[in-house]
Amino acid sequence: MRRRILTTTALLAGSALLLSACAPSAASGDGAEEGDEVTLKVWSWRTEDVEAYNRIFDVFEEQHPNITVEFEAFQNTEYNQILTTGLAGSDGPDVPMVRAYGQLQPNIEAGQLEPIDDKVEGLDEFAPSVIAGAKGKADGKTYAVPLATQTLQMFYNKAIFDEHGLEVPTTWDEFIEVNEKLLAAGVTPMALGAKDDWILPIFSDIIGSARYGGSEFEEKVLAGETDFTDPDYVAALQLVSDVQKYLTPDVVGVSYTDSQIQFTSGQAAQFPGGSFEIATFRNQAPDLEFGSYQVPVPDGAVLDAPVSPAYADGNFAVNTKSKHQDEAFELLNWFATPEFGQLVADELNQFSAIPGVEYEDEVMKEAWANYEEGQAPYLLLVDFRYGEPLGTAVLGAEVQKMFLGQTDAAAAAAALQAGISQWFTPGE
Amino acid sequence: MSAITTPRARRGTARSGITLSRRAGMVFVLPALVLFSIFIAYPLLTALSYSFFDWTGIVRGGFVGLENYVTLFTQLPYRDDLPNAFVHNLLLFVGAMVFQNTIGLGLATLLHRIRRFKRFFQTMYTLPYLVSPLVIGYLWSLMLSPLFGPVNAVLRAIGLGELAQPWLGNPQTAIWVVVVVTAWQWIGFPVLLYGAALGGIPEEIDEAASIDGATAWQRFRAITLPMLLPAIGTVSVLTFIGAMEAFPIPYALGGSQGNPAGATDVMSLLFYRTAFESGSSNAIGTSSAIATLLFLFIFGFSMLITWYMRRAERKLF
Description:
The structure holds 2 protein chains of 2 kinds. Chain A is of the alpha/beta class. Chain A contains 18 helices and 10 strands. Chain A starts with a helix and ends in an 8-residue tail after the last helix. The longest helix of chain B is centred in the first third of the chain and has 36 residues, at 78-113. Chain B contains 14 helices and 2 strands; from the N terminus they run H-H-E-E-H-H-H-H-H-H-H-H-H-H-H-H. Helix content of chain B is 74%, strand content 3%. By secondary structure, chain B is mainly alpha-helical. In chain B, a hairpin with a 2-residue loop joins strand 1 (53-56) and strand 2. In chain B, helix 2 crosses helix 14 (283-316) and helix 3 (67-74) packs across helix 14. Chain B has a two-stranded antiparallel ribbon. The chains are: A alpha/beta, B mainly alpha. At the A-B interface, helix 1, helix 3, helix 4, helix 11 and helix 17 of A face helix 2 of B.
């Protein structure tokens, strides 16, 4: 009898464990459908923007009383896996925020996103290099509405410039002179976190895009008329090596976050970086007076005017498995309107991908005006992240080696070409 | 008759607690077995099977045999990254072994001798081992920062300014920083294990040897060390596994790319990059191949160490 009870208990304990192991993870219903009421699930990696997005979606919900938008944000670094799992299952988002360019391709190739070409109006308003970030490489169809644009430029500390009687440089000679004066005055001219390799291709394009020819070079490289061993591209990398003396000594030991502190604490006068820094600088140092400029054109440059390299950052797409396709497309159409673009600018402090948006923030206004005057693609991100190894990863490591004196501009360019030709065939 | 009754009688007398039938026993083992199968055996086997297929995102394509493995040895960036990362793993293992079997064993021997403060010191040495390796990694990367780090500041303050350098920015020093920080964090582990093993050695043997006139060093060489061999074997295998799977400290010190210029790259980082950061369509295929290779190597080599240590022990006793 005793044994019998024991066996039963053991069986019960075992099955309880089993049950708990097999239980589905918190089954959340996909919006109770009462009448025409629909709840759309929107996923994003912008955990810092949840409140702002809720305010943005309040505007949408007012105009579309039958739709409720449920915004969920996940850790940026884990988002790709979370999204891949979500899109594969039945419990995923209706409208996910997705990455741009090469990082978007796995989702498209897996057939997880709806093509949107004829279903969303206003797609032709976007700049070609921006909408390229939402297209499938293989079929050329558009799969998402671009959200934001990031521009790359040189930020400078206005107080330090005033203190040393410096002006924003308009020629390459003036640019060198500004840096020399800062160096002589004992101020680190530029803060760069070269220990984190991803910032280095950004730095290279800020310094050298005009030298190698920006979008002109892009066309030629994509068509196969030239490659990265082109003398102009090597010369652009040489500029990066030339300005190393204006960076912190031992720059390869400095991390990206260290370099931000260097700039916001006034230890360094300039910071080559993306427009995504503006919000960070405002948070870290609310009193910091800063502006931005495009690095002037050096002698022998292909372009005769300076440029801001830029890229699309983030898209919104429609999950193929969404049960509310109509409503999801309604939301996507709204994402392509200037009204939403303006909300992105005002609420998120980002450059909207939609043209004709006004910016309140002085620094943003200035950076955007510069970008409108001289545009270029952030080449390695826009065009060379469609295969392994990523163009940005190769150049990042090569520039580190260049700073360490282990390689030179020509060899770095050759290594970049060798890495990319692994998967890139011109003209495809 | 007695032959039949004896076991019964024994069973009767031994029945102070509970006796389970085979079936009931199985039921108790079942939960652990199921959990093990779901969380260890199943993923292991799926990773193995994944590595033989071509992938498009998370959609499985055709069977490609060993192609993913061939890719690892013939194509960039794997062709360069794999040997580079692998050598760093071996360095981590060798470095950890050297630290643990010299300093670790030395500390354990010293601690074994003292009576007072023994617990205190044991706790102190073990403390870093209890802190998350990610925290340790970020802490050291702050300490070694060329801009704000106290390490260089102290060196300059005591007149050793020439030694101050960008520890994590220079490829020659960066990997050694990883090795030393890893060893520093783990040192408490051999101290504890060796300490326990030392406590298990009968004092009489040592006493007898010292009466026979053996010096302290002779006693250590001829008695303590051989009797520690099982513990050394255990520490070696665990250190080997730890070094081959190293991830948090290299990640905190050098990021997922193993900065600078791949100088702190290790196998787990390569796997992580390939699986989660490459954006390559076939990420699952290639990364599963890396994981499988790494597993096979760790498994094979651990067996080898265990076998070797067992043989050495058998010779002794």
